[in-house]
Design a protein that fits this description.
globular, alpha/beta, single chain, binds NADP nicotinamide-adenine-dinucleotide phosphate
Length: 492
C-alpha cells in the first residue's frame, strides 16, 4: 500500500470504530425515526460519516435515564467513582493516537494539537478521580458556644451538558469528570460538527465501568428543540454550557423558569498587553501561542494586541514573520501548524472582520485572505493601523487574525483592555513586578496569563466574568459546581 492509502485506511478504521448511535440508559440505539446527520471533514468539505439525529423523545428518554440512574450513583462509594475516572484516564492516554486522529478528522486542528487537547482532556479525569474521595463538609461550634454547625456536600442531581466544537473532548471532560466524582448523572449534547470524540469518550467510560444511565449522549441536528424541554424539566437540576454568549443568554432565560443552577463558559475577547519593559521575543512567542493555539478558534484566543508605542512596530513585524512561516493544511499532514476553520460560515465571519478593518485603513503585514481550494482555510494574518471602531477589536474573531494597536501609557492600556463586554482572560507581558500586580488587579477578567500565552490547566479554575459567563471548571472549584451545601443546625 502507498503511504496515502495507509493513511486513508487508518482514517477509515478509526471512523468505523466510533459508535454512531445515541447512548441512552446504557444502550446504544438509533434516533427515533432513524434519522442521521452528517459529520464533515473541514479540510475537504467531504462527509466523514453519519451519526444519529436525536429527536425530542430521545432527549426525554435520555433525561429519564439520567434521573433513574441518579439515586444509586449518588449513593455509590466515592472510591468506585474515583476508580472509574482513573481507568478512563488511563484508557484515553493509551489511545491518544487514535483519538487524536479522530479529533483532527472532525475538527481540523493539526494532529499534534489534537494530542495536546487529549492530554488536557484526560487530565480532568485524573484530577477529579483524586477529588472524588476528598469531598468534605465541616463541623464547627456555633459562635455563641451553644449548638453546632454541620455542613454536608451532596451531588446536585441529573445535569445537562452542552459543549462546543472547538475542543471536542476537553470541553466535555471538564464537566463530566467533576460530575462523576460528585455522584451526578448527566445528558451530554456535543456540537453538531464534532460529535465523534464525545461518542468515543462515552464508549471509553462504559468500558471503564461507568454504570448505564449515568452518562447519556444525545447527538442532534436541532439543539434548541431537543434541549429546551429538558432545561424546563424539573428532573434536571443543573445546566452547564460552553459556547457562544448569544446562545448562553437564551439558555439562561430558559433556565430561569425553574431557577436551575447554571454554569456558563461563554465567549471571549482577550486582550494581549505588551509593555515597553517586556522581553519582546518572549512576548512574540507567547502571542503566537495565545493567538494560534487551535487556529485561533478558542475562547481564550488573544483577540486584540495592545503594545506600547515604543515597541509596537517591532512586535508586529516579528509576529508577522512568525505567523507567515506557519504551514497551513490538512491537520493530518506532516509539519502542518494551522488547520482549516470549522466551516464556511466561520471563515466568512473571519474574512468579514478583516475586510472591515482594511476598509477602515488597516495595514495587512501578512495574510489577509482566504486560501483557495477545498476546505475552509484562511491565511494567518497580522494587521496594524487598526481604526478604533473596527469590528475586529470588539467582536470575537475565532480565527488566525491578529490586530496590533499601540498604546501610550499603562492607564490607556488597562482602559483599552477592559473596553469590552467580555471578561474571560487577558495576557500581560511585563518584567516590572509592581506593574504586573497593578495590571493583573485592574483587569476585568476571570483569568490572566502573566508572561505566558496559555492559562488552561486542569488544576486551576477556568472561567470568566461579565458576558464571558459564570462558574468555574477545573481545580477544587470545579467540583463545587456539582455539589449542594446542606447545613444542619445542631442542638447539643
Ligand atoms: P454555539 O453556537 O453557542 O454552540 C455551542 C453548543 O450549543 C453546541 O453544542 C450547539 O449545538 C449548542 N446550541 C446552539 N444553539 C442552541 C440552542 N438554542 N439551545 C441549546 N443548545 C444550542 O458556539 P460554538 O460556535 O459551537 O462555539 C464557539 C463559542 O464557544 C465561542 O464563542 C467561544 O468563545 C465559546 N467557547 C467558550 C469556552 C469557555 O470556556 N468560555 C470554551 C470554548 C468555547 P449545535 O452544534 O447543534 O448548534
Amino acid at each position: 500500500m502507498t503511504m496515502a492509502a495507509t493513511e486513508t485506511a487508518g482514517e477509515q478504521s478509526i471512523l468505523q470504530s466510533v459508535p454512531k448511535q445515541l447512548l441512552i440508559g446504557g444502550a446504544w440505539r438509533d434516533a427515533s425515526g432513524g434519522g442521521t446527520l452528517p459529520v464533515e471533514d473541514p479540510a475537504t468539505g467531504e462527509t466523514l460519516c453519519e451519526v444519529a439525529d436525536g429527536q425530542v423523545d430521545d432527549a426525554q428518554a435520555a433525561l429519564a435515564a439520567a434521573h433513574e440512574a441518579f439515586p444509586a450513583f449518588r449513593d455509590s462509594a466515592p472510591r468506585e467513582r474515583s476508580d472509574i475516572l482513573r481507568r478512563a484516564y488511563d484508557a484515553i492516554v493509551e489511545r491518544t493516537d487514535e483519538l487524536a486522529l479522530l479529533m483532527t478528522l472532525e475538527m481540523g486542528k493539526p494532529v499534534a494539537e489534537s494530542r495536546a487537547e487529549i492530554a488536557y482532556a484526560a487530565n480532568f479525569f485524573r484530577w477529579y478521580s483524586e477529588e472524588a474521595v476528598r469531598v468534605n463538609g465541616r463541623f464547627t461550634i456555633n459562635e455563641t458556644g451553644v449548638g453546632r454547625v454541620l455542613t454536608m456536600k451532596q451531588p446536585i442531581g441529573p445535569c445537562l451538558f452542552i459543549t462546543p466544537w472547538n475542543f471536542p473532548l476537553a470541553m466535555g471532560t471538564r464537566k463530566i469528570g467533576p460530575a462523576i466524582a460528585a455522584g451526578c448523572t448527566m445528558v451530554v449534547k456535543p456540537a453538531r460538527q464534532t460529535p465523534l470524540s464525545m461518542l468515543m469518550l462515552a464508549r471509553i467510560l462504559e468500558q471503564a465501568g461507568l454504570p448505564g444511565g449515568v452518562l447519556n449522549v444525545l447527538t442532534a441536528r436541532s439543539s434548541g428543540a431537543t434541549m429546551e424541554p429538558l432545561i424546563r424539566d424539573p428532573r434536571t437540576r443543573k445546566l452547564s454550557f460552553t459556547g457562544s454568549t448569544e446562545v448562553g443568554r437564551k439558555l439562561i432565560e430558559q433556565s430561569a423558569e425553574q431557577v436551575l443552577k447554571v454554569s456558563m463558559e461563554l465567549g471571549g475577547n482577550a486582550p494581549f498587553l505588551v509593555f515597553e519593559d517586556a522581553d519582546l521575543d518572549a512576548a512574540v512567542q507567547g502571542a503566537l501561542l495565545a493567538k494560534m493555539r487551535n487556529g485561533g478558534e478558542a475562547c481564550t484566543s488573544a483577540n486584540r494586541f495592545h503594545v506600547h508605542d515604543s515597541v509596537a512596530g517591532a512586535f508586529a513585524e516579528k509576529l508577522a514573520a512568525a505567523m507567515g512561516e506557519l504551514k497551513v493544511g490538512r491537520g493530518t499532514e506532516d509539519g502542518v501548524k494551522v488547520g482549516p476553520l470549522i466551516d464556511d460560515d466561520q471563515r466568512s465571519k473571519v474574512a468579514e472582520l478583516v475586510d472591515d478593518a482594511v476598509g477602515r485603513g488597516a495595514n495587512v503585514l501578512v495574510g489577509g485572505a482566504r486560501i483557495d481550494g477545498a476546505g475552509y482555510f484562511y491565511a494567518p494574518t497580522v494587521m496594524t493601523d487598526i481604526a478604533p471602531d473596527a469590528r475586529v477589536l470588539s467582536e470575537e474573531i475565532f480565527g488566525p487574525v491578529a490586530p496590533v494597536q499601540g498604546f501610550a501609557s499603562e492607564e490607556q492600556a488597562i482602559a483599552r483592555a477592559n473596553d469590552t463586554e467580555y471578561g474571560l482572560v487577558a495576557y500581560v507581558y511585563t518584567r516590572d513586578l509592581g506593574r504586573a500586580f497593578r495590571v493583573c488587579e485592574a483587569q476585568e477578567t476571570g483569568m490572566i496569563g502573566l508572561n505566558q500565552g496559555m492559562v488552561s490547566n486542569d488544576g486551576a479554575p477556568f472561567g470568566g466574568v461579565k458576558e464571558s459567563g459564570f462558574g468555574r471548571e477545573g481545580g477544587p472549584e470545579g467540583i463545587e459546581e456539582y455539589l449542594e451545601t446542606k447545613y444542619v443546625a445542631m442542638n447539643v
